[in-house]
Amino acid sequence: MSDESTELASIDIGRILSILPHRYPFLLIDRIEQINGDEYGVGIKNVTVNEPFFAGHFPGRPIMPGVLIIEGMAQTAGAMCIHSKGADTPKLVYFMTIEQAKFRRPVVPGDRIEYRMTKLRQRGNVWKFAGEAWVDGFKVAEAEIGALVSDQ
C-alpha cells in the first residue's frame, strides 16, 4: 500500500446494498473507505443505542456481541470481493472458517468501529482475510476469516 500511484476508493451504503443481500437489522457496515480492490479495505459501523441486540445484551450495560463484530468483518471482506469483481447484483457470502478470534475490549453505543481487512489469499470463489476491529485507536477484536462467495 506504499505505492503512491494506487488510488484508494470508497463504497457508500447504496453500493453495499446493491452487492450484499444483508438488510437491517443484520447489515453491520455503513460504508467502506480506503478500499484497494480485494486486497485491503476499512469498513465502518456506527454503533447506536437503537441496535436491536442491545435490548438483551445486556440490559443496563449494552455491549455489542463479539460474534456480530466478526460478522461485520466478514461483510466488509465480502463487499470488497464482490465489488472488486464488478458485480451489480447481490452475492451470498458463506462463512467457511473463523480462526484466532480474540476480543480485547467491549464495543458500546456511540462507538465507531473500523473493520480493517487484509486479504491473505484467494482461490476461485474462496477468500481468506485477516481482520481487525478498531475503536478510537484501540484494537477491540481480531480474527482470520474464510468465506465462499456464491451466486446462490
Report on this structure:
- Strands 1-2-3-5-6-7-4 form a seven-stranded antiparallel β-sheet.
- The protein has helices at 13-19, 66-84, and strands spanning 9-11, 31-36, 40-46, 92-103, 112-123, 126-135, 138-150.
- It has one domain (9-150): Roll (Thiol Ester Dehydrase, Chain A), CATH 3.10.129.
- Residues 1-6 have low confidence and may be disordered.
- With 152 residues, the chain is an alpha+beta fold.
- The termini are far apart.
- The chain is built from two helices and seven strands.
- Helices cover 17% and strands 41% of the residues.
- The protein is globular, with a radius of gyration of 15 Å.
Q: What's a concise summary of this model?
A:
By secondary structure, this protein is an alpha+beta fold.
- Percent of residues in helices comes to 10-25%
Q: From the 3D structure, determine the CATH topology.
A: Thiol Ester Dehydrase, Chain A
**Pairing-aware structural class of the strands and helices?**
alpha+beta
Mean pLDDT: 92
Give the strand content.
35-45%
- Please state the overall shape, judged from the principal axes of the Cα atoms: globular
Mind telling me the CATH class?
A: Alpha Beta
Number of strands: 7
Spatial arrangement of strands, main beta sheet: 1-2-3-5-6-7-4
The helix/strand series, from N terminus to C terminus, equals EHEEHEEEE
Fourth-level CATH superfamily: Hotdog Thioesterase
Instruction: Please give the oligomerization state of what you see.
Output: single chain
Number of domains: 1
End-to-end separation in angstroms reads 33 Å
Rounded radius of gyration (Å): 15 Å
Give the second-level CATH assignment, the architecture: Roll
How is the main sheet built?
Answer: 7 strands, antiparallel
Count of runs of 4 or more consecutive helical residues: 2
Unreliable stretches (pLDDT < 50, length at least 5) are: 1-6
